[in-house]
Amino acid sequence: GAGVSQSPSNKVTEKGKDVELRCDPISGHTALYWYRQRLGQGLEFLIYFQGNSAPDKSGLPSDRFSAERTGESVSTLTIQRTQQEDSAVYLCASSPLAEAFFGQGTRLTVV
Amino acid sequence: GQNIDQPTEMTATEGAIVQINCTYQTSGFNGLFWYQQHAGEAPTFLSYNVLDGLEEKGRFSSFLSRSKGYSYLLLKELQMKDSASYLCAGGYSGGGADGLTFGKGTHLIIQP
């Protein structure tokens, strides 16, 4: 596609359930980022993939959060046993070298 | 991570000029990005500075001083549609933190 695609665009889940968020980066982009943005707040770094290197997971807030990326393509962010504090917009961005291109995000609401 | 600091909120008047400052850690630094984010939307790219100096792009200009770890975004002839959050981001490699690190953003309010 022309841009970074994220799905679903909105997700409402019950507390304690697991959720999986998907990001399709722009083809050829070696770098992929996940960020979390709570309402009215800045971007909170979660995880960074760069090519075949080991991902930088330093931003993941707890062991309930994990992410995978297959080669230089699709990435999934999984949140296990969701909590209300996980409610936020989860943004994915991909980059060929420097500039990052963002998807429209997944708005997660935990009820 | 790398500390990216910028003011939380600024207010300016339509038609005026506003400067949004950003400071960053210089270790491993490659370049400085500015993004614009309207409420409820994804960030969009505004500028990228690698070398010292001022880069002008229409009403928006971005400045970088690598030695001082300092950048600013200058917005001229402000319009109501410029009301948004402006995110400063540093690109880093090595030094324990790679990739793009964002500041918390500056919420710019434009008043008539």
List the helices and strands and how they pair.
The complex is a heterodimer of chains A (111) and B (112).
Chain A: E1 5-7, E2 10-13, E3 19-24, E4 31-37, E5 44-50, E6 65-69, E7 75-79, E8 88-95, E9 101-102, E10 106-110
Parallel strand pairs in A: 2-10
Antiparallel strand pairs in A: 1-3, 3-7, 4-5, 4-8, 6-7, 8-9, 8-10
Chain B: E1 4-5, E2 9-13, E3 18-24, E4 29-37, E5 44-49, E6 53-57, E7 60-65, E8 70-75, E9 84-92, E10 99-102, E11 106-111
Parallel strand pairs in B: 2-11
Antiparallel strand pairs in B: 1-3, 3-8, 4-5, 4-9, 6-7, 7-8, 9-10, 9-11
Structural description of this entry:
The complex is a heterodimer of chains A (111) and B (112). Chain A has 111 residues and is mainly β. In chain A, 0% of the residues lie in helices and 47% in strands. Chain A has strands at 5-7, 10-13, 19-24, 31-37, 44-50, 65-69, 75-79, 88-95, 101-102, 106-110. Chain B is an all-beta fold and 112 residues long. In chain B, the strands form two sheets. In chain B, strands 2, 4, 5, 9, 10 and 11 form a six-stranded mixed sheet that branches. Chain B has a five-stranded antiparallel sheet with strand order 1-3-8-7-6, with no helix packed on it. Chain B is globular. In chain B, 37% of the residues are buried. The A-B interface holds A 31, 33, 35, 41-43, 45, 48, 50, 56, 58-59, 91, 93, 95, 98-105 and B 1, 30-31, 33, 41-45, 48, 85, 87, 89, 91, 97-105.
